[in-house]
């Protein structure tokens, strides 16, 4: 038997193509986030008066960035084998940001931010991936988005989506730091970047089902096309750029305003 031919045969069917479009989308989202955070620093830390930043348009921009990151994170779950390891790394990165902000800028502490959310979602979804795979992806997406739509406003004390309110929730749910992590923050809770498990884990699972929808209908091949090498490179280093961008922005602005 020709071992070389055998290896080629195995590689042909086990090799996974890289989805460059996903890297590009991550890169775009990351650049958007850096610009958004730069303006946040100018407005809230350096006293620049820009009323537009508090407008609905700026809110939609911010939500678009967050939705993109969370959906892409869920989408990428089927692509990796070490979901638990990656989840622990991302969760630990979120913990580092919490500790650093608690020490350096306690007034602007990041508690249960987006990295904590994504790491938590990875750890929760990892053991139930086989169960989720049994669900038709279209139905799974509809159910997940329906739950996200229904619970979008639970952090504010009621079921609903943005300006829509369906039902008030009992105050007893909003009692401590643990309920805040789940999505029920007490009245004295504060975080400058708050993304609890509910409702956001449902959006994460939407991303997971989007992968299988594209796979089911043969659209994954379009994600392998190359569009922008710089954006792809940025998208492959999202976590580490996320970790260092705020200290760099703060240093740059401090030097500029000192001058």
Explain what the structure shows.
The chain has 259 residues and is mainly alpha-helical. The protein has one domain (21-41, 58-228). 64% of the residues lie in helices and 3% in strands. It contains 11 helices and 2 strands. A two-stranded antiparallel sheet has the order 1-2. A hairpin with a 2-residue loop joins strand 1 (158-161) and strand 2 (164-168). Helix 2 packs antiparallel against helix 3, helix 5 (114-125) packs across helix 9 and helix 7 (137-151) packs antiparallel against helix 9 (197-216). It is globular. It starts with a helix and ends with a helix. 25% of the residues are buried.
What are the defining features of this structure?
3% strand, 2 strands, mainly alpha, 259 residues, disordered N terminus, two-stranded antiparallel ribbon
Short description:
By secondary structure, this protein is mostly helical.
Number of helices: 11
Q: What's the average pLDDT?
A: 91
Helix content, binned percent: 55-70%
Task: Report the sheet-strand fraction.
Answer: under 5%
- Our count of domains comes out at 1
Computed Rg: 20 Å
How is the topology of this model organized?
Blueprint: H1 3-14, H2 20-45, H3 56-75, H4 83-104, H5 114-125, H6 129-133, H7 137-151, E1 158-161, E2 164-168, H8 177-182, H9 197-216, H10 229-235, H11 238-258
Antiparallel strand pairs: 1-2
């Amino acid at each position: 038997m020709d071992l070389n031919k055998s290896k080629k045969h195995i590689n042909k069917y086990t090799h996974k193509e890289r989805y460059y479009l996903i890297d590009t989308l991550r890169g775009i989202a990351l650049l958007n986030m850096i610009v958004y955070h730069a303006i946040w620093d100018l407005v809230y830390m350096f006293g620049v008066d820009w009323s537009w930043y508090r407008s609905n348009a700026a809110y939609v921009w911010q939500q678009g960035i967050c939705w993109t990151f969370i959906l892409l994170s869920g989408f990428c779950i089927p692509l990796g084998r070490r979901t638990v390891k990656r989840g622990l790394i991302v969760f630990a990165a979120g913990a580092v940001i919490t500790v650093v902000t608690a020490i350096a800028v306690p007034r602007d502490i990041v508690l249960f931010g987006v990295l904590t959310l994504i790491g938590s979602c990875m750890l929760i979804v990892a053991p139930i991936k086989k169960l989720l795979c049994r669900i038709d992806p279209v139905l799974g997406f509809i159910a997940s988005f329906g739950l996200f739509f229904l619970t979008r406003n639970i952090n504010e004390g009621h079921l609903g989506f943005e300006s829509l309110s369906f039902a008030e929730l009992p105050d007893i749910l909003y009692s401590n730091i643990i309920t805040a992590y789940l999505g029920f923050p007490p009245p004295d809770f504060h975080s400058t970047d708050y993304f609890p498990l509910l409702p956001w884990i449902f959006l994460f699972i939407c991303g997971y089902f989007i992968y299988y929808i594209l796979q089911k209908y043969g659209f994954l091949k379009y994600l392998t096309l190359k569009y922008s090498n710089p954006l792809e490179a940025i998208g492959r280093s999202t976590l580490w750029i996320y970790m260092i961008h705020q200290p760099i922005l703060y240093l740059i602005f401090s030097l500029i305003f000192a001058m």
